[in-house]
Design a protein that fits this description.
The complex is a heterodimer. Chain A has a single domain, classed as STAS domain (Transcription Regulator spoIIAA, 2-Layer Sandwich), CATH 3.30.750.24. Helices cover 46% and strands 32% of the residues of chain A. Chain B is built from 19 helices and 17 strands. In chain B, helix 6 runs antiparallel to helix 7, helix 8 runs antiparallel to helix 9 and helix 9 packs antiparallel against helix 10. Classes of the chains: A alpha/beta, B alpha+beta. Chains A and B meet through helix 2, helix 3 and helix 4 of A and loops of B.
């Protein structure tokens, strides 16, 4: 289950985290580490790009929940972008769309930060 | 002593031949000289007997199996006996055995005398024994040419014997005073003799057995051997003619042999002499290597960390003869003093930090143990004077297992220059053994811990399984069955069936996010919470809101739960359902399967108000033959070997097929189908199935 990757790209005040592969209990800590780094650096305008994420388990979803409160307290947000249909179904089933903004395009998510 | 057939030929036939000759001597030739032909025949018989005897004796196991020291003792005793016999003979010779023959103007011996017989047999046996024992010594740790050189020696001895016989060498022996010039009577005899001497020297270089003696034994060999060589020399100059008179062949053999003995013992004495100064050192090295071997065996059999450390420090003292020793074990980036000998641990801790750090740094860079001969003169360790003014020298070796530094072993001596350079290698070798032992102890601990962990998980699994309903409530007209299997020993899935009253049956299926122990604890807690809440609330929505409240207050923020909660009212034949982020419930009817997708987000995701606002509740009528199928996402997300998902579609088709079966059969069938589907693939999520069916 090592086929999971986290990459990060900072553009001005928005940071985009790219997830690739299989996000489950084994790989969740890598994603957690990436988010922790951002929070530590006080870069709280975060977009998570899910375009290449093939699977997300409950442990993976838990990572978003572990950080959202802190990030929002710091006047930031975690927005999700470009989920595949499969991943979106999981997000939708759990009710994520009610809690997180999910965008079809990464650019839209970044734009949302810019305009606010 | 086992004598094989061919050895018997080599022993008994010569003995019979000798006895035959002796008998003839005694009977017929008491005083006179023998005529030429019978004399030659007698010599030939003696020569054959001697050759056979040498061959037979040298193959006796009894000679081969003796220990080195026994061989040396045996050799010495043979020489002494031979000398004593000859001495005795010499004393009696003039009166009893020899008379002066005026006609030929020389001494004539009376062979018929019994003393001659004893002397003769004694000489034969002893000289053969000495010869064979010398051969054994020469062959210790034999080289490629050892056998060839020894054979040459033997060939030349026998050639000389044959020549003396054929040349009809009379039983007249050169008087000792002629000795200084040449040995033999003719040039050819001298040539053969020269070869015997030459090969005597060549074989004399084979003194490897000296290496196997310890210092004390070397000294013994040197002095005792030094006494025996003059005895042999005496034999050469005084008595060889006597036996030569009796038989040219035997005499020649005995003579060559004594020469060879003198040469060989002389060279062996020289060899011993050269080795005497280093004998003590050699002994120490051998002792060290032996003790190292013994130590390795000892520490290799210790599987307890404390015991190992204690033994290591104890043995470290012995290996290099140190006064104090201690072991530091590396833990992360720091070193922990694990044990000491000859000095208290608290005292070791008082060694100035600069010294300890300096040594550690130095040790890390060295292949062999670090040796500091004069601690207070060394810049790095000069501060040690503050600790103890009298510590002199130090050895420190890193303990490294599979390229990972595990610690450092120290040995200290009060004297400066207390360790020799060679101790570095030895100390490091010991540290390497310790490293292996430490590594083993570590591995064993990890294995045991894993074993214990698995055992505990198994217990936890059993405990968790007991949290699931053991018996389904018996309600007229309602069939119920459930099944839960976890991906690991313990998981976060659960289901429960609570009969709140005769008119109400609650069915709940939940899935705690994450896996393993933490999920399992939350699951257990949830079960209790729900059992407690159920009787106090009349709708699934209210119960779920309460559960959400509990979760928000008590669970980790990254933990959430998906759940379906149903309250079945048998009298009304309807079920009230709410679903919090959980996969939809399958409603199985004769005319098809539909999915009840009420709205609702997972428990623990949002505040109670938000959660409540989004939670939808539905009432579903259940008539005879209708069934509800509840499950967790582990079912539809299960994958087969090709990576395909079980999926909602396939589940729907199966439920359709099973619509007229009982609840138990429905659960069993789907479970079996899942097991077939996922054959050869490890499960990565828990799976829970619950079926409720109205039978009447």
């Amino acid at each position: 289950m090592s086929d999971f990757e986290v990459k990060r790209k900072d553009t001005e005040d928005v940071s985009v985290v790219y997830l690739k592969g299989y996000l489950d209990a084994h790989t969740a800590h890598e994603f957690e580490k990436a988010l922790q780094e951002l929070v530590d650096e006080n870069r709280v305008r975060i977009v998570v790009n899910l375009a290449e994420l093939s699977y997300i388990s409950s442990a993976g979803l838990g990572v978003f929940m572990g950080f959202i409160e802190d990030v929002r307290k710091k006047k930031g947000d975690i927005k999700l972008a470009e989920p595949t249909d499969r991943v979106f179904r999981v997000l939708d089933l759990l009710g994520f769309p009610a809690l997180y903004e999910i965008f079809k395009q990464e650019a839209e998510a970044i734009e949302k930060y810019r305009s606010s | 002593m086992k004598i094989q057939k061919q050895h018997a030929i080599g022993i008994f036939i010569p003995v019979l031949l000798f006895l035959f000759v002796v008998a003839v001597d005694l009977e017929f030739f008491s005083v006179e000289m023998l005529p030429f032909v019978p004399n030659q025949l007698r010599e030939v018989i003696l020569g054959v007997a001697l050759a056979l005897f040498v061959w037979g004796t040298s193959r006796l196991d009894w000679f081969r199996d003796r220990a080195l020291l026994q061989k040396l003792w045996f050799l010495g005793i043979c020489v002494v006996v031979l000398w004593s016999g000859m001495r005795l003979l010499e004393l009696r010779m003039s009166s009893d055995l020899t008379s002066w023959d005026e006609s030929v103007d020389r001494a004539v011996h009376s062979f018929g005398h019994p003393l001659w017989t004893i002397l003769f047999l004694g000489v034969v046996v002893l000289s053969v024994w000495i010869f064979v024992t010398l051969k054994e010594l020469i062959f210790v740790q034999q080289g490629k040419k050892t056998e060839r050189n020894f054979r040459f020696l033997l060939i030349f001895i026998f050639l000389q014997m044959a020549y003396n016989l054929a040349g009809g060498k009379e039983r007249v022996v050169v008087v000792p005073s002629n000795w200084g010039v040449w040995y033999g009577d003719t040039i050819l005899e001298n040539i053969f003799f020269a070869f015997v001497i030459l090969f005597g020297f060549i074989n004399g270089f084979r003194c490897k057995w000296i290496h196997y003696l310890n210092k004390r034994q070397k000294v013994g060999v040197f002095f005792l051997g030094g006494l025996l060589t003059p005895l042999a020399l005496f034999l050469l100059f005084r008595s060889s003619d006597t036996i030569q008179n009796y038989s040219v062949v035997v005499g020649t053999f005995a003579n060559s042999l004594v020469w060879f003995y003198v040469i060989y013992s002389g060279m062996a004495l020289l060899g011993t002499l050269f080795q005497l100064p280093s004998a003590g050192l050699m002994d120490r090295r051998i002792r060290e290597i032996r003790s190292l071997q013994a130590l390795s065996a000892t520490i290799g059999s210790i599987f307890n960390m404390e015991e190992l450390v204690s033994k290591t420090t104890e043995l470290a003292l012995r290996v290099v003869g140190a006064d104090f020793s201690w072991v530091e074990l590396k833990e992360g980036s720091t070193y922990r003093l694990a044990g000491s000998r000859g000095v208290r641990q608290e005292d070791v801790e008082k060694i100035p930090d600069s010294v300890r750090k300096g040594i550690r740094k130095e040790v890390a860079q060295q292949e062999r143990a670090l040796l500091i001969n004069h601690l207070s003169k060394n810049k790095m360790t000069a501060e040690i004077k503050k600790w103890r003014p009298r510590v002199g020298s130090l050895l420190a070796a890193r303990i490294q297992f599979k390229k990972k530094e595990m610690g450092i072993l120290y040995a200290l001596k009060s004297e400066t220059f207390g360790f020799v350079e060679e101790s570095r290698g030895l100390f490091q070798a010991f540290a390497d053994q310790v490293a292996m032992a430490l590594g083993n102890v570590h591995l064993i601990q990890v294995t045991i811990e894993q074993e214990v962990y698995h055992e505990e998980l198994k217990l936890a699994h059993d405990a968790q399984m007991r949290l699931l309903p053991r018996e389904m409530p018996q309600l007229k007209g309602v069939e119920l069955d459930g099944f839960c299997m976890t991906a690991n020993e313990i998981g976060g899935d659960f289901y429960d069936v609570i009969q709140v009253s005769k008119e109400r049956l609650d069915v709940v299926v939940g899935d705690v996010s994450g896996k393993g122990p933490s999920a399992a604890f939350y699951m257990a807690e949830l079960k209790g919470v729900i059992q407690a809440l159920a009787p106090h609330f009349s709708s699934p929505k209210k119960i779920l809101i309460e559960v959400n409240k509990f979760l928000r207050n008590h669970f980790e923020k990254d933990t959430f739960v998906t759940m379906v909660y149903g309250i079945f009212l048998p009298a009304k034949k309807q079920i009230h359902l709410a679903r919090a982020g959980h996969p939809p419930v399958g409603l199985v009817r004769k005319d098809g399967v539909s999915w009840l997708e009420t709205k609702g987000i997972g428990l623990g995701l949002d505040s109670d108000a938000q959660f409540g606002k989004r939670l939808e509740q539905k009432v579903v009528p259940l008539n005879k033959g209708d069934a509800l199928f509840l499950y967790t996402d582990g079912l539809i997300e299960a994958r087969n070997r090709k990576g395909e998902e079980f999926g909602e579609e396939m589940l729907g088709e199966m439920l359709q097929k099973l619509h007229d079966r009982g609840a138990e059969e429905m659960v069993t069938e789907i479970r079996q189908e899942l097991e077939t589907f996922t054959k050869g693939v490890s499960r990565h999520d828990d799976v829970t199935l619950v079926a409720l069916r109205i039978s009447t």
